Amino acid sequence: MARCEGTTRNGDQCKRDAQPDSKFCYAHGAADTEATVEDEQSEVILEWEDIKPLILVGAMAAGFFLFMRTVGRWIPRM
Asked: Which residues pair with 17 in a beta bridge?
């Protein structure tokens, strides 16, 4: 069997055998998956061009709400 490619807290290579069809042992296999997910999530960076449409839609919705609230006072209730 191949040796696990994971590292210990000291930075040494793990002494366990790797699981079948994997480069890591049972302990480092789950930790590697979680680290990969965290790395992928940390790479998401929102820029102004991504946020601008959301702010504009929110401002338009607030304006529409205030407009309808004002116009609604002029319309008699039935």
From this structure: 3
